[in-house]
Amino acid sequence: MIIAAAVPLSSDALRRRIVAELSQRMNADIELGDLDLHLFPRLRASGGALRVRQHGDGDEPLISVSHFVLDADLLGVVRHRIAHVQLVGLKIVIPPKNKSRDASDAVATTGDRPQTDPSFEGDVVVDTLESTDAQLVIMPDREDQQKGKKPSIWAIHRLKMRDVGARSAMPFDATLTNAIPPGDIVTSGTFGPWKVEVPGDTPLAGQYVFDHADLNVFRGIGGTLSSRGTFGGALDYIDVNGETDTPDFVIDVGGHPFPMHTKFHTIVDGTNGNTYLKEIDVDFLKSSFVARGAVYDEGEHIPGRMVTLDIDMRHARIEDVMQMAVKASPPPMVGALTLQTRFELPPGDADVADRLRLDGRFTIAGARFTNMDVQAKIDELSQKSRGRTVLEQRNRVLSNFQGRFTLGAGKLKLGSLMFEVPGARVTLAGGYALKSEALDFRGLMLMDAKVSDTQSGFKRLLLKVVDPLFRRKDGKDGSAVPFKINGKRSDPQFGLDFGRVFKRGN
Fold first, then answer.
1. How far is it, in rounded angstroms, from Cα 380 to Cα 398?
2. Distance, CA of 492 to CA of 478 (rounded, Å)
3. Can you tell me the distance from the alpha carbon of 2 to that of 120, in angstroms, rounded to the nearest whole number?
4. What's the Cα-to-Cα distance from 408 to each of 250, 356, 430, rounded to whole Å?
5. Residue 202 and residue 240: Cα distance in Å, rounded?
């Protein structure tokens, strides 16, 4: 009698029980197509066209399955357990929260809840559920949909769940495809219990591994990224902690691959794919920095995502940063660097060098130039600025820099750069084009010595005539020399800015 009551003896009886069970558990309208039932040698049911919809919702179903196969034994059915379910063409659509709540409120006010079949009471648990080529679709909210925002679609190649029921967290293993950058994510954890009224609030927790992600799909950068970490929260609000390693990260404008390691804490909004970067710790070469920001959709009809970061670089080397953006090897300068900047990378097809925007300030301490000719000129500048006409053989002069900068449309602009060596202080303003490497700067050099004191013999006597033209306006002894820098980074042209010299002398 127990077996007769528990085991459906026809396809129609099983269909009624499946519809009643899903209707009660999910508080939803259920559609089910053809269903075939075989009782021996064990219970097997196969069917298709399964649809789960919120009550009164004519839009896309919450859950749809093209085909399924259900296997069970008689003892398992008596215990309300199904041994195995195989799904093909599974698609889960998570509606925006506002819509979910509207629908649930409507059900609550009408009181029209489906009734279960009395012969099928009690929780039913599936021992193992497997799915191939499934999709998880998370719909944006109504406002974003009106702006043309597309749903977030996750392709789930393989999904295996255990102890699948409606009232507890369900262990799972899955392989998902990440669209950009392309690669497979292998993950495991727990899912559920399913939140009937607000599916986006369904709990999710676990760990993941993401390997061999090709960063070359992003124009202007390259490398192969791997990542691993843990996550928790809900479908539409996922808290992620993890690490990444990119042993060959490269920015095209610089062209030098280098290793990069990051640790991060982010919040991912599954409804729109926006990512909020609570903290990122980045280590590369001998440098590191901390960043906070977001990766988000800019809005209507704009493909790609906006990246904004506030970067604080307190333990870095200028040669490491130059390796990112300067083709020269070795880098033109070495020294200790501190930097704070706002980083913005708008979406688009142009190279990173053309899209990147920066606005910040920096300090370089104890710097020296790797080009021997350039460093020799700095050494000479320092000695002559102190009135030493006979150049000494001594250690390389170390320079100090500080200033503000902006970067946009592929051009670096320095608004107030100050450069110091023993005997001289230089203020500089101008620009540098990243791709063409063209220089265009104007500056003023304040020397401890007079112009005539930088020379000896007959030249010194001649220059005494022009010393008044270079008199410092701050009342201190020495000279103020306006200059300009043009040409290319590989061959800079230094010259006296005669227009400003005579203007100062008037």
1. 12
2. 26
3. 12
4. 20, 6, 13
5. 16
- Dig out the tokens for 24 from the structure: 């009660």
Task: Convert the pLDDT of each residue in 238-293 to its tens digit.
Answer: 899 999 999 999 988 778 899 999 999 999 876 667 889 999 999 999 999 999 99
Q: How far is CA 133 from CA 321, 446, 490, in A?
A: 43, 70, 54
SS3 13: helix
80: tokens are: 């309300």
- Same domain? For 40 and 185 the reply is yes
Residues 157 and 207 both lie in one domain: no
Amino acid letter, residue 3: I
Same domain, 157 and 233: no
500 token code pair: 């400003």
**Count: domains in the chain:** 3
What pLDDT is recorded for position 100? Answer: 45
What gap in Å lies between CA 490 and CA 249, rounded to an integer? 25
- 260 vs 300, residue with greater confidence: 260
Whether residue 358 is contained in a domain is answered as no
The three-state (H, E, C) secondary structure of 225-289, written as one string = EEEEEEEEEECCEEEEEEEEEEEEEEECCCCCCEEEEEEEEEEECCCCCCEEEEEEEEEECCEEE
Q: Are residues 377 and 296 in the same domain?
A: no
260, 291, 321: which is the final residue of a domain? 321
The token duo for 163 is 């102890």
Among 55, 93, 68, 91, residue whose Cα is nearest residue 18? 68
Q: Please give the pLDDT value at position 8.
A: 58
Residue where a domain terminates, one of 153, 186, 201 = 201
Q: Tell whether 18 and 147 lie within a shared domain.
A: yes
The domain of 62 spans: 1-201
What letter represents residue 129's amino acid? L
Residue 193 lies in a domain: yes
> Do residues 41 and 155 both lie within one domain?
yes
Instruction: Please indicate, yes or no, if residue 360 is contained in any of the structural domains.
Output: no
* Secondary structure of residue 1 in the 3-state scheme: coil
Residue 166 sits in the same domain as residue 220: no
Q: Is the pLDDT of residue 118 over 50?
A: no
Buried-state track 321-360, b at ≥16 Cβ within 10 A, e below 16: bbbbbbebeebbbbbebbbebebbbeeeeebbbbbbebeb
